[in-house]
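Figure 6 in text form: structure in, sequence out.
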């Protein structure tokens, strides 16, 4: 008899609650918030579009909650077997982003003194460091990592690639955190991220070619 699966567990309830916390913050700040709340900021930190106050408070948190729900449904009822460490990281990525971002989007209109880019860079820098710490512990999977055919089909190549890739992501996160408050922050963020992605991809190809030569 197959085990009955359900998404209604403690992890789902906590992650969902974190996604919805900004709604409570929004109602606490209701009297201080403007009648129109920006939902997106451009390169120069100027609002590009807004929503009426009520919708501005609830839209992003509900959207993130739905993403969290869908992610739990996909992983829980998938026929594929996922490494538990990978699943744990995946479950917490959305709330780690959703809660602080949702609160920031409410504090920004009432005068918080931090640029949108700087805030996003801090969140992503921390996220890269968390993922980088977990990557070396993962096995081939369809959720996270350098998911190329030459890594997915070879556990040894996967292990070597993600041991280095994890280190690269930790360094990338540190670099972003250090440079995000400098004049070159935006350029450094883009350049470093592109370099890290290309490096991990090229390194995976080199490892795969090297492993194939060794087998022959």
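Output sequence:
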């Amino acid at each position: 008899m197959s085990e009955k699966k359900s998404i209604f567990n403690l992890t789902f309830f906590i992650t969902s609650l974190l996604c919805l916390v900004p709604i409570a913050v929004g109602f606490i700040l209701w009297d201080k918030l403007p009648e129109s709340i920006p939902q997106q900021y451009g390169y120069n930190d100027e609002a590009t579009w807004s929503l009426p106050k009520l919708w501005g408070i609830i839209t992003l948190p509900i959207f993130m909650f739905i993403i969290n729900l869908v992610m739990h449904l996909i992983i829980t009822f998938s026929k594929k077997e996922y490494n538990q460490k990978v699943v744990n990281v995946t479950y917490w990525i959305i709330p780690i982003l959703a809660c602080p971002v949702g609160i920031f989007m409410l504090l920004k209109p009432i005068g918080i003194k931090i640029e949108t880019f700087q805030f996003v860079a801090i969140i992503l820098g921390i996220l890269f460091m968390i993922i980088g710490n977990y990557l070396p512990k993962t096995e081939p999977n369809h959720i996270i990592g350098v998911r190329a055919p030459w890594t997915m089909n070879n556990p040894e190549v996967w292990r070597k690639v993600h041991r280095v890739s994890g280190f690269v992501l930790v360094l990338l996160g540190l670099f972003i955190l250090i440079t995000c408050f400098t004049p070159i922050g935006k350029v450094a963020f883009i350049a470093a991220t592109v370099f890290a992605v290309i490096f991990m991809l090229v390194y995976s190809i080199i490892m795969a070619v090297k492993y194939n030569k060794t087998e022959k």
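Caption detail: The chain has a mean pLDDT of 90.
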